UniProtKB/TrEMBL annotation:
GCVT N-terminal domain boundaries: 54-113
Name of this chain's protein: GCVT N-terminal domain-containing protein
Xref: InterPro entries: GCVT_N (IPR006222), TrmE/GcvT-like (IPR027266)
Gene3D superfamilies, sorted: Aminomethyltransferase beta-barrel domains, Probable tRNA modification gtpase trme, domain 1
Species this protein is from: Candidatus Blautia gallistercoris
Length: 406
């Protein structure tokens, strides 16, 4: 390696990059412009670092038994070196954690970028010969891609990042930060804790009694829903369309609630495309006398992470039919949209509802919106590369090249 670079975590310190304290760590907020980053996964390629969280190892003779108790998934039909997206709920079927988890051996599992609270809480019952060990990181891609991974000493991370970025200019490689990351995720219709909803651990008094946990788990409650309305900021596995992963052949926490929801579903997840005239009225208010509407920032209406944001969604006659969160501007589609949990009878494509944009007790704009598919890029994207690494580890860095193959 050449001359040691000044670093911010595992990435080189670059003067043109904006950094932000997220979850207690300095991470890239914006490097290349958010417009360029927004187009990168459609038209060229991107590189990013520090967006995924840490990892935990679950080890011991009862590790599988433990995961079976806290997960809606079947964890016994699971080969070594294979991954599952585990979903963990409370007794009401509300999501406490969801995370990619890999089986490393018969008695060892590794959970990536997840909230370890369900594991910690269940271990406290004393029923399991198992333990959880906090460690560094892992990265993954959710759209059916081919990945190449590089690892090495953490001290070389910034230099490797710099070299990949420089060589990637031939492929119009862009640097992605948190400011635009959630556009990537939400355009594809993927629900994500801390982005579109909160962990249900925030209604667990034991969790909230531990300052180190509560400070990370809690987010500011914004939006037109009353800040005291915790339920508006939470999601069930059914509401985000994850019941297909549930196996009701084992005793897991939340099973009874989810069985009832499966038999009688109330809401589903959709992307709502907002009406342009109503969007323009929101912006126009900032150039006129009187109280203005809440500003919609670009590309994220709520600077992320914003799992505590919740806007009322109603019909034209005032009936509340859903919750809108994660309001985003797509530079590629030239549209404003939000992720919404909507009553099933209102979720037909083209049906018009009203998103109550603004904060509780302040001026509200009832913006017209319709369920819309925004996923065609998954079929037409020519490809991209991604670099990702994790700032918590003091031992190794991880580099991933991801090429879209859909």
């Amino acid at each position: 390696m050449g001359k040691k670079l000044e670093a911010m975590g595992f990435v080189p310190l670059q003067n043109e990059v904006t950094y932000k304290n997220l979850f207690g760590n300095m991470q890239v907020w914006e490097a290349d412009s958010w417009q360029e980053a927004s187009l990168s996964w459609k038209k060229s390629s991107y590189i990013h670092a520090g967006i995924s969280g840490g990892r935990q190892y679950i080890k011991g003779p009862d590790a599988q038994k433990l995961l079976s108790r806290i997960s809606i998934n079947d964890v016994y039909n699971w080969k070594v070196n294979r991954c599952k997206h585990l979903v963990m709920c409370d007794e009401n079927g509300l999501i406490v954690n969801h995370a990619l988890t890999q089986r490393n051996s018969e008695e060892e599992f590794c959970m990536y970028a997840g909230n370890p609270w369900p594991i910690i809480k269940e271990l406290q019952t004393g029923k399991y010969n198992a333990e959880i060990i906090q460690d560094s990181c892992f990265v993954f891609q959710m759209s059916g891609t081919l990945a190449y991974e590089f690892r090495g000493p953490a001290e070389f991370g910034p230099e490797v990042y710099q070299k990949i970025w420089e060589d990637g200019q031939e492929y119009d490689l862009k640097r992605l930060g948190w400011k635009t990351y959630t556009v990537n995720h939400t355009e594809g219709g993927f629900p994500q804790m801390t982005v579109g909803f909160e962990t249900a651990a925030v209604v667990d008094p034991v969790f909230m009694s531990v300052p180190e946990l509560a400070s990370v788990g809690c987010q500011k409650h914004t939006g037109s829903y009353d800040p005291a309305d915790a339920r508006a900021r939470l999601r069930t596995a059914g509401e985000v369309d994850w019941l297909w992963m549930a196996r009701f052949d084992h005793d897991f926490i939340g099973r009874e609630a989810l069985e009832k929801e499966k038999a009688n579903p109330k809401r589903k997840i959709v992307n709502l495309e907002w009406n342009l005239d109503d969007i323009m009225e929101i912006y126009r208010s900032h150039f006129e006398e009187g109280e203005d509407y809440k500003m919609i920032e670009f590309p994220c209406g709520q600077p992320q992470p914003a799992g505590g944001h919740a806007d009322i969604v109603s019909t034209h006659d005032g009936k509340v039919v859903g919750v809108s969160s994660c309001t985003l501007y797509s530079y590629y589609y030239r549209t404003l949209f939000s992720q919404c949990i909507l009553d099933i009878d209102q979720a037909e494509l083209g049906n018009e509802v009203l998103v109550h944009w603004g904060d509780f007790g302040k001026k509200i704009k009832k913006a017209r919106a319709q369920p819309k598919l925004l996923q065609k890029y998954l079929r037409v994207s020519p490809g991209f590369f991604r670099f990702e690494c994790q700032p918590h580890s003091q031992q190794i860095f991880y580099i991933f090249f991801i090429r879209q193959i859909i």
